[in-house]
Amino acid sequence: MSAEAPATGGKPDAEEQMKSVAAVVNPELAGAYRAGAVDLLGIIAYGALSAFERLAEDAHGAPTLPDKVELARVAARQVDHFSAVSAQLSEMGVDVMQAMQPFRAPFDAFHDYAKPKDWYEGLVKAYIGDGFAADFYREVAAFVDVDIRALVFRVLADEGLSDFIVEQVRKGTDADPKLAGRLALWGRRLVGEALSQAQRVAANRDALTSLLTGTVDRPGMDLAAISRMFSRLVADHTKRMAKLGLQA
User: Fold this and answer.
1) Is the pLDDT at 153 greater than 60, yes or no?
2) Beta carbons of 53 and 59 less than 8 angstroms apart
3) How far is CA 182 from CA 33, 129, 185, in A?
4) DSSP-assigned letter for residue 63
5) Is the dihedral of CA 212, 198, 139, 82 positive or negative?
6) pLDDT at position 5, please?
7) Which one-letter DSSP state was computed for residue 138?
8) What topology does CATH give the domain 14-244?
9) What is the pLDDT of residue 80?
10) What is the pLDDT of residues 23-36, one digit of tens each?
11) CB under 8 Å, gap of 24 or more: what pairs does 172-180 form?
């Protein structure tokens, strides 16, 4: 979940998009592209499932009834997102459970390690941690066909949650200035762990990485472009922290 969709670089041209479409329609033509697209959808499906669980838990601990309703509403939307991704995978002849399985352990390890201690840390995690991940998935989605890309962007749409979180966090830090320092440290910890998680997933999932780096029959990003991509991710993280009134 993330408020802003950053500009993505290295979008494939029309010929490459047609190859991608053919890969989805005809699995025999898929190769590394299809495996990478399945990985992208699998990680987003499990992300939606995980977001539902965490938002529902945050809603349970919400300080007011309107806060509880807002988070419950957004949590419910994650089920719709999961269903949409599951349907796309089914069209590709892939079971969503199979597609999600490789990402269950790293996702769960991240959330176990970065478990919020209170209401405010939970909000910052949803905004900063999920926002960073969503930005990265959008970057990867620049290299899949237009239909899958549109689905990814739709599933990762903000849906008003970021405005709610910014308002709540700023209200809390205004009332307790010491809270800002604690949440700033928490935000930095989250993005550091998110980067580490992305590296671990990339090391284990060559097909997902190949969407960015390209294959023998499909160009991708060179090292300079990948460096610029990570610069965009860090810049967007800094903007989010600033909106919360926290130092990155």
Assistant:
1) yes
2) no
3) 42, 16, 5
4) S
5) positive
6) 41
7) H
8) Ferritin (1.20.1260)
9) 95
10) 443 343 356 788 89
11) 172/120, 173/245, 173/246, 179/120, 180/245, 180/246
The DSSP element (H or E) to which 218 belongs, if any, is: strand 218-219
Q: Position 126: which residue type? A: A
pLDDT confidence of residue 216: 58
Q: For the segment 208-238, what is each residue's pLDDT rounded down to a tens digit? A: 888 877 765 666 777 788 888 888 988 999 9
Q: Which two tokens stand for residue 67?
A: 């806060």
The residue type at 75: A
Backbone angles phi, psi at 45, to 5 degrees: -60, -45
Within 8 A by CB and 6+ apart from 34, the residues are: 23, 24, 27, 92
36: which 2 tokens?
Answer: 């990478």
- Quote the Cα angle for 97-142-15, to 5°: 110
More confident residue, 89 or 213: 89
Name the percent of the chain in helix, strand, coil, to the closest 5.
80, 0, 20
